[in-house]
Amino acid sequence: MENYSPQPMFSKKRLIDIDLRSLLTNLFKLVRRDFAGILGLFIFGSVVFTAIFAPKIAPHDPLKQTLKVSKQPPAWNVGGSWEYPLGTDNLGRDIFSRIVYGSRVSLLVGFCGALIAAVIGLLLGLFSGYKGGRTDDILMTLVNIVMALPYLLFVVFVAGVLGRSLLNTILIFGITDAPMFVRVTRGEVSYMRQSGYVESAISIGASQRRIIFNHILPNLIGPLITVITFEMSALILFEASLGFLGLSVPPEIPSWGNMLEAGRKYLTTSPWMATYPGLAIMVTALGINLFGDWLRAVLDPRHRRARR
Residue 159 falls within a domain, yes or no? Predict the structure, then answer.
């Protein structure tokens, strides 16, 4: 009898074609259902990519001054040149290169400030929400007092006292934005503390540490990540506001806020000096907000059910 070896029903190439087709189908459904979220992810990813590879993307040194080409218009305007695609400022510095490098400052301030605020708010909110009683009342009263203050005015006052510095800007936003995370964390912890699985853990004698780290903290990750994305967008706008007022990073550091402050004097004669940094701020904040809304839909089952 001849040896018989059964042939596979599907070849490897056929299986790859099926997997690729199903991947593309799922991707198309995802884009059609959450186009805004995918757009936000693309914008956010593009800004992060630009910040990481700024030395490779920027055609010029953002600090190099060439006075003979100062206030040169964008390349598509009369008198412009593709050597400086978005034009130059009053000191002859390339605006496109400064926008590229400015993304580093905005993302660093937004991400680090939101992360510091999240850590502080998580610790205080966990303690307040789980402890309850008089401790919770005192802490939340202090949080409400801080949140009742006009935020930007409060930040401007603190920044004016501490002075211009990248580290100071990050710490100012990290500390002043913490009350938002305290309220969110405290509300979630108070809700989860009355849930059935926490009461069951308490009834079998589980320690407070085990309850907090095994039952409560994992359920806080989703809401906190969502809040971090929204607050990151807000902090980018606030950093630009501080830079516009001359209270953010030192003037020699390229940042979008500093560019707005420098360009406001030439709005009538050289509007591109402030227009393109402003567009960069607007598009970045919009992308992060869209991405945050999509994250909320993905990470929060209650919101996901509501959307369906």
Answer: yes
